[in-house]
């Protein structure tokens, strides 16, 4: 583009020296000016229309998921306790802090209750704002209190509508990213349609509303859109500064709303590192992105009262290591191919060593063990030795942390998304390899330049970033199903960009010797339109059927349990049980818990393992002693855990406890040689027989088809 402008200036100068030529060109120049004005008006009109379409699609998606949520639960008609029970597991825990802030006498009192909380973990006072990412609940509760909407909107609706509103932001961000990459808003329209038609694999917001990822992923999508814009060439300084500010704000909000932010941004930092090593991104912009990640995470660290898990994150260590290594190796991008490869290998090793040393040093200084369960899980998952660690096995046995099921790809292929994605990914990867080789070799041979001319046009910095981003997050999704939502949403962006990209169609047509500018233009628009028509024809009736299908929330046993707790136990009572159920107990009844699902704390993990001995083969005296050490007044036993059949042998909770305790598992099957039979029967089964050795410590006070509640005796 720069060369073309320079040539035009040159021709204009020569024409100025020749008066007759200037006179001859007056009419064409006027026509050119007219064409230029018309082109600008057309671009402005296209941006306006594209923007309206983006906002409309975002709002429609928000209404769509809100309607699905209402239709699935009949949320507007069920009781408050049923609404709260619908926030399962950790969702209920997070929402309980919003409810707590709403019900507090004042905002100051509500904040004090969070900073000095003694109801989430019995016999301990913890700082909720430090331990958990709940600033969004705090902000939303304050907003609800100060806005004049209390008479018109219930607190729960204000909460869920905010989350559904963020889905609009999410879809608009995906739309804009695809638009920026391809240059046409038709690409954004296709990305948004794919996101909706593949809803099962792109989001789970309608049934896990308060989950941290539903708060965080819209901001992550905004950040990716802003990075894509930043990596465009010929940005004005003002545009660049504003974009960097947008990236910082999005990064900060993403980090503030999700405890796993550091791991996602580490993958992002790896993508930047790889591209920088192969000269595919401007080094100055990459440096700014590293600094933004560090500053955003440190700001969150301050707001979370210097949370040690953030300070000991691999992301901070890695980014610092890259910046240090770059100052040491100043000639990293000079020399021939062999020299560059040697320098690159040394650079990677240097960054790796610095990262491990810095991270080890920080964790040693801070005595940090909050995230050790994650590394134990990863070590066992990727085959670096079997483990009997209870926490690691708890993750390994959950389907959400297993490999991505193969039926995911068949669902994604039904909408043509996966097929097109694989095609675009293959083509772009080949181009990236060629460009990387050329950049490393530093060759200026004319023949080589001619061969890769199309490649350099196709693989612009913004496209290169999105390519590596989708590859790395694809690897994460393949290895851990729960993380697929980070990949599948970006898959919609990447596939739609490839289908609407002038450069990609130009490259394909040149390879098969059919290239003309007009043919490229026709294909660029006709193929996406045909794809949109196919998606509409095939999936619109299904969406309409889905919206017309009405269900109702039904969980009478849990409702009965919560109502009994509220009516028959003191407000200061302490409850023990499964961490998933206890999150609901806290939300629905406000009672004190022994443990909960927010697992990023070593003391809590050890406490949970001890509480779960109620499902192990332990004596009544042992279980009573353990429960009383945590101040327990009541213990809730669930038949669905005690007699679990959902998992196979070896992955049932009772099996994990038996293995951790060195006991032989129940049922037919092999056991490891060193496992021994337990001296005691399984507690959750034996207690129901009302034997004297049990009744002296435990008295059954509530029972239904699912739950059994026992009150602990208070021996002196």
TrEMBL record:
GO terms for molecular function: mannosyltransferase activity. It is found in: Membrane. This is D19L3 mannosyltransferase. Residues 1-33 are annotated as: Disordered. Residues 1-10 have a biased composition (Basic residues). Keywords: Glycosyltransferase, Membrane, Transferase, Transmembrane, Transmembrane helix. InterPro entries: Dpy-19/Dpy-19-like (IPR018732), Dpy19L3 (IPR047465). CDD domains: Dpy19L3 (cd20181). Signal peptide: none annotated. It comes from the Eukaryota. Pfam families: Dpy19. Residues 21-33 have a biased composition (Basic and acidic residues). GO terms for cellular component: nuclear inner membrane. Belongs to the dpy-19 family. It is a multi-pass membrane protein. The chain crosses the membrane at residues 41-66, 215-232, 244-275, 287-316, 337-358, 415-437, 463-481, 487-509, 521-540. It comes from Rissa tridactyla.
């Amino acid at each position: 583009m720069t060369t073309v402008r320079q040539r035009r200036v040159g021709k204009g100068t020569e024409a100025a020296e020749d008066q007759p030529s200037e006179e001859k060109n007056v009419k064409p120049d006027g026509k050119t000016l007219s064409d230029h004005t018309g082109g600008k008006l057309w671009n402005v009109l296209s941006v306006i229309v594209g923007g309206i379409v983006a906002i409309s699609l975002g709002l429609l998606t928000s209404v769509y998921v809100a309607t699905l949520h209402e239709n699935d639960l009949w949320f507007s008609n069920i009781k408050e306790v049923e609404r709260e029970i619908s926030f399962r597991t950790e969702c209920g825990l997070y929402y309980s802090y919003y409810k707590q802030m709403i019900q507090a006498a004042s905002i100051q009192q509500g904040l004090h209750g969070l900073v000095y909380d003694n109801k989430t973990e019995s016999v301990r006072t913890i700082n909720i704002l430090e331990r958990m990412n709940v600033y969004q609940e705090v902000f939303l509760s304050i907003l609800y209190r100060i806005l004049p909407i209390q008479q018109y909107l219930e607190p729960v609706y204000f909460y869920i509508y905010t989350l559904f509103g963020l889905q609009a932001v999410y879809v608009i961000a995906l739309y804009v990213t695809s638009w920026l990459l391809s240059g046409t808003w038709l690409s954004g329209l296709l990305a948004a349609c794919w996101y909706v038609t593949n809803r099962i694999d792109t989001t789970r917001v309608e049934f896990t509303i308060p989950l941290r990822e539903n708060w965080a992923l819209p901001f992550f999508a905004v950040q990716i859109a802003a990075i894509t814009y930043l990596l465009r060439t010929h940005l004005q300084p003002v545009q660049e500064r504003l974009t960097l500010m947008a990236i910082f704000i999005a990064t900060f909000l993403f980090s503030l709303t999700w405890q796993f932010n550091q791991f996602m941004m580490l993958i992002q930092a790896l993508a930047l590192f790889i591209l920088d090593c192969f000269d595919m991104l401007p080094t100055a912009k990459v440096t700014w992105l590293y600094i933004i990640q560090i500053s955003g995470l440190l700001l969150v660290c301050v707001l979370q009262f210097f949370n040690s898990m953030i300070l000991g994150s691999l992301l901070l260590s890695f980014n610092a290591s890259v910046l240090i290594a770059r100052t040491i190796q100043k000639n990293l991008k000079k020399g021939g191919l062999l020299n560059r490869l040697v320098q690159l290998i040394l650079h990677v090793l240097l960054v790796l060593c610095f990262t491990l040393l810095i991270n080890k040093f920080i964790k040693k200084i801070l005595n940090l063990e909050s995230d050790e369960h994650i590394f134990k899980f990863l070590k066992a998952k990727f085959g670096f030795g079997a483990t009997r660690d209870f926490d690691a096995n708890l993750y390994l046995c959950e389907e959400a942390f297993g490999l991505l099921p193969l039926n995911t790809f068949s669902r994604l292929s039904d909408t043509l998304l996966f097929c097109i994605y694989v095609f675009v990914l293959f083509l772009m990867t080949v181009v990236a390899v060629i460009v990387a080789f050329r950049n490393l070799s530093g060759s200026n041979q004319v023949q080589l330049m001619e061969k890769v001319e199309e490649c350099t046009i196709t693989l612009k910095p913004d496209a290169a970033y999105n390519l590596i981003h989708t590859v790395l997050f694809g690897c994460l999704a393949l290895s851990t199903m729960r993380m697929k939502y980070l990949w599948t949403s970006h898959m919609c962006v990447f596939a739609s960009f490839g289908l609407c990209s002038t450069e990609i169609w130009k490259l394909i047509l040149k390879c098969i010797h059919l290239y003309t500018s007009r043919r490229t233009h026709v294909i660029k628009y006709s193929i996406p339109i045909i794809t949109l028509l196919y998606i509409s024809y095939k999936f619109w009736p299904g969406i309409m059927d889905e919206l017309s299908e009405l269900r109702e929330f039904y969980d009478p046993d849990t409702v009965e349990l919560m109502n009994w707790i509220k009516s028959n136990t003191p407000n200061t009572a302490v409850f023990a049980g499964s961490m998933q159920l206890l999150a609901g107990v806290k939300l629905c009844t406000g009672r004190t818990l022994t443990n909960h699902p927010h697992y990023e704390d070593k003391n809590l993990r050890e406490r949970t393992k001890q509480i779960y001995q109620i499902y192990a083969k332990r004596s009544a005296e042992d279980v009573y002693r353990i429960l009383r050490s945590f101040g327990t007044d009541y213990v809730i036993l669930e038949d669905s855990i005690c007699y679990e059949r959902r998992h196979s042998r070896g992955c049932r909770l009772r099996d994990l406890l038996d293995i951790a305790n060195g006991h032989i598992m129940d049922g037919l099957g092999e056991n490891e040689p060193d496992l021994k039979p337990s001296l005691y029967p399984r507690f959750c089964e034996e207690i129901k027989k009302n034997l004297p050795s049990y009744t002296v410590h435990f008295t059954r006070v509530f029972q239904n088809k699912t739950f059994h509640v026992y009150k602990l005796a208070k021996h002196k």
